[in-house]
Write a structure and sequence with these properties.
Layout lengths: L1 E6 L2 H15 L6 E4 L6 H12 L9 E4 L1 E3 L10 H8 L11 E2 L8 H11 L7 E4 L21 E4 L2 H7 L13 E4 L2 H5 L3 E6 L5 H8 L18 E6 H8 L1
Parallel strand pairs: 1-10, 2-3, 2-6, 3-5, 6-9, 9-10
Antiparallel strand pairs: 4-8, 7-8
Helix pairs in contact: 1-2, 7-8
The structure holds 2-amino-2-deoxy-6-O-phosphono-alpha-D-glucopyranose.
The site of 2-amino-2-deoxy-6-O-phosphono-alpha-D-glucopyranose has 14 residues, from helix 5.
């Protein structure tokens, strides 16, 4: 079962996502699953605005992020850590100890994956926010990833490294080849999930996610079996599912 919201444009998509976040924040100890990428920036901006205008506080919120590049120090300008600080954490009141992210610079990445998965053992994410890769990946679960995966070391495809090269000055050679990513089974444990996708480049991925067979060649297609999924797309991203 899923709900599809087709937004007029990016800002409206962010606004719709903010409504879901606001709902979850009514809980006493809300847990948010967060992601990086260009897509959630508008949502994070709204979250910051609501905090700065005194409408919302995040002091009881706990967060878990989806992924981090392997080999980048948390202070690296392109790390997911830095992104999250710049785009959200530095501007709101989420206590530092409530923030959870994989350490991409851990000496033993496999052990770090286990530690991260274990940190979620007694936790249910209330709302997992997801973007969508152009190849249908979520987190860094690339095509071919088993639906059973937990937090693991993920190999990035050339497509994903190409898509993300813009953040690395356009130089694909600087984009790490591996990341620590929550697995598909980890993601599916969330109580509710929202996928935000905007722009024409996401039209095929949205189509395969919703209408395609539930196969690992489109990792996001696993979401078809989630009981509480909301897809927020702008018209450009939704073009193949609307007609
Ligand atoms: C990255 C991230 C994903 C993200 C995707 C889409 O590869 N690992 O979590 O959803 O890119 O990014 P964007 O929102 O920039 O299109």
């Amino acid at each position: 079962m899923f709900t599809i919201i087709v937004a007029e444009n990016y800002d409206e998509a962010s606004h719709e996502a903010m409504k879901l976040v606001r709902d979850v924040l009514r809980k006493e100890r809300p847990v948010l699953g967060l992601t990086v990428g260009s897509t959630p920036i508008g949502l994070y901006r709204e979250m910051i605005e609501e905090y700065q205008s005194g409408n919302l506080s995040y002091k009881n919120v706990r967060t878990w992020n989806l992924d981090e590049y392997i080999g980048l120090d948390s202070s690296h300008p392109q790390s997911c850590h830095t992104y999250m600080k710049e785009k959200l954490f530095d501007h709101v009141d989420i206590p530092q100890e409530n923030i959870h992210m994989p350490n991409g610079n851990a000496e033993d990445p496999a052990a770090e994956c286990e530690r991260y998965e274990a940190s979620l053992k007694d936790v249910t994410i209330d709302l997992q926010i997801l973007g969508l890769g152009t190849d249908g990946h979520i987190g860094f679960n690339e095509p071919g990833t088993s639906f059973e995966t937990l937090t693991h070391v993920a190999e990035l495809t050339e497509q994903t490294r190409y898509d993300n090269a813009g953040y690395f000055g356009g130089n694909i050679d600087l984009v790490p080849k591996q990341a620590i990513s929550m697995g598909l089974a980890t993601i599916m444990r969330a109580r509710s999930i929202v996928v935000i996708a905007t722009g024409e480049s996401k039209a095929n991925a949205i189509y395969n996610m919703i209408k395609g067979p539930m196969k690992s060649r489109c990792p996001a297609s696993i979401l078809q079996s989630h009981p509480r999924l909301t897809v927020i797309a702008d018209k450009a991203a939704a073009q193949r599912i609307l007609f």
